[in-house]
Amino acid sequence: MSGSQCESVPATNEPPNKKVMRKAVVVLTRLPEYNVSALRPPTPQQFYSEVDSHSGSDSDMQWEPEGGSSDSDFSISENNRKTGKPTKSESKQTPAPKTSTNKDNGDTSVKKVTDPAPVIISSAFSYVSNETTKTRPSLPQEEVKVDMVVLARRKPMRWQRGKIVEILTRECGRLKYKVSFEEKGRSLVSGHHIAYNNTPKLEQLYVGARVAVACHEHDNVYRPGILAELPSRKNRLRFLVFQDDHVPVYVGLPAFHLVCKPLESVLDDLPDGAHKSFMNKYLKDWPYPHLTQYSVGQSLNAEFDGVQQKCIVQEVDSSLIMVVFQDNQHEEWIHRGSIRLEHMARFLELKEAKERKDAPK
């Protein structure tokens, strides 16, 4: 056959019935590098794009500290950008604490100080319309009547379960409720100092609702507070409540109860002070409350026992951080927008000063 690659076998003197044995040879050819790369299986990192690595549920407007003087750490960035759940690469972008040398004792070693401001964001918590509302839903309310089991105010920060034994009408027309507590004793309280014993329905809840939340340290003890977050992917489907002592807690639906007859402004039920001012601002800013961004292990100053003290971030949970104070090892959860945080307090002071300066005269 013409063009065949078969070669003729030279004649030999061997008998025609003897078989000719041939040895197989494997020839290896080196492929170009681009062919080798194409044949490799993808690594885990290649399966995820930069977009996929972010949570689509979060939408934060970030306020970046600008360079320059220390005051500019709290300036508002003109380039707001959307961010998702912080990734490892993003956590490296958080401004690192500045360093200084200890000149007082001659020690020239580098040490951390707590002055630098972290990134401060205005976090969007709205996913559906009812999460942004701060207005009490227009729904029929359960009638408060004699023999109803309720939670009633016994002390400013101590509500307990009891039964309404009598309803009195004052000369001004206002109602008072006489409550007999399960653990002995009676109180005469107003409608905004009693809460329903039953679990509230989701459609009854809104940011700014007045509630009584279960105290995990004591059975049958509840703390008055204000509902500050509804469940979302951002807070892992929990409710955030600010107690009247400024303590924030994440709870499930069965852990809190709606106040029966809240005041027109829930802030009127709070004593004058720092917490009332904070809640006033928080409700005005909602659903974009200002939050600081801290990482685990970061040091900062926070108010404790009336003074700013150094503490370390132990854990970050949605809008809260767990800190441990270095002097006494006291641990507690603090809201990332709390005025107890030195960074946030300074930021708000500068922001309010700027607003006063820019206000029309």
Explained architecture:
With 361 residues, the chain is mostly beta strands. 11% of the residues lie in helices and 31% in strands. The protein is built from four helices and 20 strands. A five-stranded antiparallel sheet has the order 9-8-7-6-10, with no helix packed on it. It has a five-stranded antiparallel sheet with strand order 14-13-12-11-15, covered by helices on one side. A four-stranded antiparallel sheet has the order 2-1-5-16, with no helix packed on it. A hairpin with a 4-residue loop joins strand 3 and strand 4. The longest helix is centred in the C-terminal third of the chain and has 17 residues. It is extended. The N terminus is likely disordered.
Sketch the topology as an H/E string, one letter per element: HEEHEEEEEEEEEEEEEHEEEEEH
Low-confidence sequence ranges: 1-9, 34-115, 126-132
Large-scale geometry:
extended
- Rg over CA atoms: 33 Å
> How far is it from the N-terminal to the C-terminal residue, by CA?
105 Å
Biggest sheet architecture = 5 strands, antiparallel
Strand content: 25-35%
Mean of all residue-level pLDDT scores: 76
Question: How many individual helices?
Answer: 4
Quantity of strands, as a count: 20
As a percent range, the share of helical residues equals 10-25%
Topology:
Blueprint: H1 33-39, E1 59-63, E2 82-83, H2 88-91, E3 99-102, E4 107-112, E5 120-124, E6 149-155, E7 158-169, E8 175-181, E9 186-189, E10 194-196, E11 210-214, E12 222-229, E13 239-243, E14 248-251, E15 256-258, H3 274-285, E16 290-292, E17 299-304, E18 307-317, E19 320-325, E20 331-335, H4 342-358
Antiparallel strand pairs: 1-2, 1-5, 3-4, 5-16, 6-7, 6-10, 7-8, 8-9, 11-12, 11-15, 12-13, 13-14, 17-18, 18-19, 19-20
